[in-house]
Design a protein that fits this description.
Strands 3-2-1-4-5-7-6 form a seven-stranded mixed beta sheet. The protein has 278 residues and is of the alpha/beta class. 38% of the residues lie in helices and 22% in strands. The chain has one domain (6-273): 3-Layer(aba) Sandwich (Rossmann fold).
Length: 278
C-alpha cells in the first residue's frame, strides 16, 4: 500500500484493536441474516477483528489477509491463545486480491484510504464476494477524545489542534500516494459504484469511561506517543511541552496516573451486498 512499516507497529495495532473491539462486535451484530461459509479480513493486521469474526461465526472459514507476515504470525498466535479457528494468507493490498478465493463476508478496516485509487480498491474488494455476500468497510467516524477540554496545564483544546494538524497530514499522505485519485469520499456512493446493493452505514461508539482500565490506558499512551513522534515538528512549543508532560510517567498529571483519563471515539462501517445471480 505505502511505506508504513506496519510490522514495527504490531504492539500498538494489537492494543488498539483490543481497545476498539466493542465496535467490531456491534458491527458484526448487524449481520444477523448472514450465515457465511467463508470470511476474509483484508488488511487484518495482528488479527483482532479476524478472531472476533471467528468467534461470532464459528462455522465459517475465516482468513486473515495482510501484506506483513509478522502481523499474520501475531494473528495465528492470538487465534491459538483464544481457541478459535483462523487461516492466514500473505497478500498485498490491493494487487494481491486476485489470488484470493471468494467469500460470503469481506471485511476491511481502515485500509482503503491507504491506497491511491480508492474506488478501484473497493471494486476489487466487491469482486471477492460470492452472490449475496456482504462487503463491510470501516472508514470515517469521529476522532478520539481522552481528556477534559482543559487538562489543567498548557492551552485548553489540545485535541482540537491535534485534529487539525492530523487532517492536514492525512491530506498530504493521500496526495503523495502512488496513483492518487481525487474522489468525493462518499463511501455509500462508492459502494454503489462498485455495483453493490442494500448499501447502508452505521456508526458505533467506543466508550471507555474514566478511570481507564489498564489496557485502554496503555492504548491512549501509545496513541499519544505516536502523535508526538508524527506531529512534533508541526506543533507549537507549548503543545509539544503539554504532550511531553502528559507522557511523563512520573508526573501525576500524566496519562499513566490521572484519574480523569477516558477514551471516547466512534467508527463508521459501510455495508454493501453483491446481488444474487439472476
Amino acid at each position: 500500500m505505502n511505506d508504513f512499516d506496519w510490522a514495527k507497529m504490531a504492539d500498538m495495532l494489537e492494543l488498539e484493536g483490543e481497545t476498539h473491539s466493542p465496535y467490531v462486535r456491534q458491527a458484526l451484530g448487524e449481520l444477523g441474516d448472514l450465515s457465511p461459509r467463508r470470511i476474509l479480513d483484508i488488511g487484518s493486521g495482528p488479527g483482532v477483528a479476524a478472531c472476533l469474526m471467528a468467534e461470532t461465526f464459528p462455522l465459517a472459514e475465516v482468513t486473515a489477509v495482510d501484506g506483513a507476515r509478522e502481523l499474520l504470525e501475531r494473528a495465528e498466535e492470538r487465534a491459538k491463545r483464544l481457541g478459535v479457528g483462523l487461516r492466514t494468507q500473505v497478500a498485498e493490498f490491493p494487487e494481491g486480491l486476485a489470488d484470493l478465493e471468494p467469500a460470503d463476508l469481506v471485511w476491511s478496516g481502515q485500509v482503503v484510504h491507504h491506497v491511491g485509487d480508492q474506488q478501484d480498491a473497493l471494486n476489487r474488494l466487491a469482486g471477492l464476494l460470492e452472490p449475496g455476500g456482504v462487503l463491510a468497510i470501516v472508514e470515517g467516524g469521529l476522532p478520539a477524545r481522552w481528556l477534559p477540554r482543559d487538562p489543567g496545564f498548557g492551552r485548553p483544546a489540545l485535541e482540537t489542534r491535534l485534529d487539525v494538524v492530523m487532517a492536514e497530514r492525512f491530506s498530504r499522505m493521500r496526495d503523495e500516494l502512488p496513483g492518487s485519485v481525487a474522489v468525493v469520499e462518499d463511501w455509500p456512493g462508492m459502494l454503489r459504484a462498485a455495483e453493490l446493493t442494500e448499501v447502508r452505514s452505521r456508526t458505533f461508539l467506543v466508550d471507555h469511561p474514566a478511570p481507564l482500565a489498564e489496557g485502554p490506558r496503555r492504548s491512549v499512551r501509545r496513541m499519544l506517543e505516536r502523535l508526538r513522534a508524527m506531529l512534533g515538528e508541526l506543533l507549537d512549543a507549548e503543545d509539544v511541552a503539554t504532550l511531553d508532560r502528559l507522557l511523563d510517567p512520573d508526573d501525576p498529571a500524566g496519562v499513566d496516573r490521572r484519574e480523569d483519563l477516558f477514551l471516547l471515539t466512534a467508527k463508521t462501517v459501510h455495508y454493501g451486498r453483491r446481488p444474487e445471480r439472476g
